[in-house]
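User: My instructor asked us to take a sequence, write out its structure as tokens, and then describe one feature of it. I'm not sure where to start. Here is the sequence I was given:
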Amino acid sequence: MKISVVMPVYNGEKYLKEAIDSVLSQTFTDYEFIIIDDCSTDGTSELIKIYKDSRIRCIRNETNLGVALSLNRGLDEARGEYIARMDADDISLPDRFAKQIAIMDGDRDIAVCGCDIIEFTDDGHEERKFFEYDCDKIKIGLLFNSALAHPTVMIRKAVLDDNRLRYDPEYEKAEDFELWTRIAAKYKLFVISEPLLRYRIHSLQVSNKHNEKQRTVCRRIRLNSLNALIGSAAEKYISVFDAYCNGEINSESEYSELIECFKLMIARNKSYNSNKLKSELYLIKNSIALNNGYNVSVQDITDLLTLMRIKASRMKNRIVKERNKWNKLG
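Assistant: Let's start with the prediction itself. The structure tokens for your sequence are:
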């Protein structure tokens, strides 16, 4: 079996049918569909029972375990070469699995493959969200935030099993972010520059209901990553580093402290592509300075605009290249 689709659900009756139908409508069909019902109290269980597709395996938790432990149960049950994540309120586009399989089969060094998404709301608003696709920059991006949309990912199961990797419930509400940081320490992560999943924005989703807890957990993940990069100095800089990640650099003194942190990150770096780390931190530094009116030289402005133009051009070229590739395939 090629793919095990793993989808946890808790009281997700409202959007569940659309999510299930989108998986069953995939053009790639060699998969099992593991749905973990986390002790739902609404009509979730009854809705799942309506489906008679033999690929669906429904597992019901006797008690509510939460997302991380439910996902781990699904991973332990999975028999596929790849794990395809899915959430019970999103919609996978028909070619999602086929296109991710093509990437994963074509490069055995890639452990996780995500894609761009289309964010949408029930009132009709839609917006494409772009993710970094360069493997080195994805790893750098994980210093700050999760660089992948969790329900888009396809994971090489052997990487999880060989390294005894599972979601850590201690990081519930950002368990994916934490797992990516551990995988990225040894393997490549990749993003297809094409939206292959419609990501629903609504008031009931985890990221909206548990925002404060999620912020606390993300701070811990950033501290772990910063500590691995700059050692004990991470404790000194984590507050300002976390403030930047949450868009909360509000004074020139905070900005100066963040720049001190960046300089130390560059000086002690042994884990990231050196030139790309310098480039990303330089881009952040000058963007903050310009947005807040802090002291910045004409040369810094020129360099920043050049980097931004290069980044935009690379993204445009990547999208065109990906589109042409898929058109040729079919």
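For the description part of your assignment, you could build on this observation: The chain has two domains: 3-209, 211-296. Try explaining in your own words what that tells you about the chain.
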